[in-house]
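Progress note, sequence design subtask.
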């Protein structure tokens, strides 16, 4: 069994939402779902790999694309339509995804 990851990347335009504590979930596919609840994880920008902040993983739960709703959009700090378009673009044709809940530890 491999160790849980200690880093996560976000698109640069989303990192202010993470560093301010406004964004408290991210929805990823199975390849990016192996985070351990209770672990501290470093956040980097995807495009430039700049360190943004640290977060603590609270939970990792399966989430069907079809079940993504306004609750998830609020936690993502994004409009629901924008969130669903983004997820479809990043993870096309993947009905089963994972919701990673987290809290900001240090900006
Ligand atoms: C490799 C990588 O950084 N991938 C992703 C995947 C998703 N996101 C964002 C986009 C949405 O806000 C949520 C839901 O997927 O997570 C991201 O920043 N980076």
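Output:
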């Amino acid at each position: 069994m491999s160790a849980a990851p200690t880093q996560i990347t976000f698109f640069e335009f989303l990192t202010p939402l993470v560093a301010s504590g406004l964004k408290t979930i991210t929805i990823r596919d199975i390849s990016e779902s192996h985070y351990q609840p209770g672990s501290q994880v470093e956040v980097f920008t995807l495009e430039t790999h700049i360190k943004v902040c640290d977060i603590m993983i609270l939970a990792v739960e399966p989430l069907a694309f079809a079940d993504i709703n306004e609750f998830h959009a609020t936690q993502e700090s994004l409009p629901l339509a924008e969130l669903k378009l983004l997820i479809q673009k990043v993870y096309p044709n993947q009905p089963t995804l994972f919701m990673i809940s987290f809290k900001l530890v240090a900006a």
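The mean pLDDT is 96. Work on this subtask will continue into the next period as scheduled.
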